[in-house]
Amino acid sequence: MNAVKEAQRATQMAMSARRSVQTARAAARLNRLIVKMVVRATALLVKGLTALLGISGSVIVVLCIVMASAAVISSPFGIFVSGENTDADVKPLTRIVQEIEDEFAARLVDIQQSAGNVDRVEYHYPGSADNTRIDNWMDIIAVFAVKTVTDAENGMDVATLDATRIGIIRSVFWDMNSLESRVETIEHKETVTVEHEDRSTSEETITRYERILHITVTSHTAEQQADIYRFTNEQMELMKEMLSEEFRPLMFAILGKDADIA
User: Fold this and answer.
1) How far apart are the first and last CA of the chain?
2) Pairing with 225, which of 26, 50, 61, 193 sits 20 to 30 Å away (CA)?
3) The total number of structural domains that make up the chain
4) What's the whole-number mean pLDDT along residues 225-242?
5) What is the model's pLDDT at position 4?
6) Range of the domain at 45
7) What angle do CA 249, 255, 260 make, to 5 degrees?
């Protein structure tokens, strides 16, 4: 028993270490984006500003770092640092996800209650290999982040998840997860043996009706929703980058999901 416990503890430590490495790599990827932007900004500004304003190159580099960091935070990638904001009017993404999942469950209950008495409920998940619900939360967050930041008229950052942004997340969720229902009535005819008062018997056919509630949950991928929202090529590239393998650990982290289980 001690050996089994030690083996389990070692396995858990290995899994934890693996997740830490994956998250570190994703964070490094985010840092590389900042560095890349710093390099580009510095190359463009150092020469011109030094000659024009007499500012030293080192001061300009610092300014570029600040500007580039701010640019990343105000980009769709700002969602990865949304958990750092602990103001009273903002919520962590994990809590937002749970609240919307509760709303989803409540709608399913409403559908069943509205259907009245049924004999059974059948769920249908188009696109699912084993007919189980598709978890498309990573796609939802990527679409939300790109759509919100790059909105030509009402663009805003996603580093602060306040009531306005939560409303957009909710809207994107329902755009990407639709519910449809219908009640099917099936007629069953059965032959039964009926005993009469004189103890004679006869075969009679009776009809029984079965009511089945069908609930269909259609979940869109990020690519499907991007087509519906008419994303530009630039928006598509940003979305694909956020959903890339390198950023997957950060996605799992902000959603509070275990990467190994997923």
Assistant:
1) 29
2) 26
3) 2
4) 94
5) 46
6) 1-73
7) 45
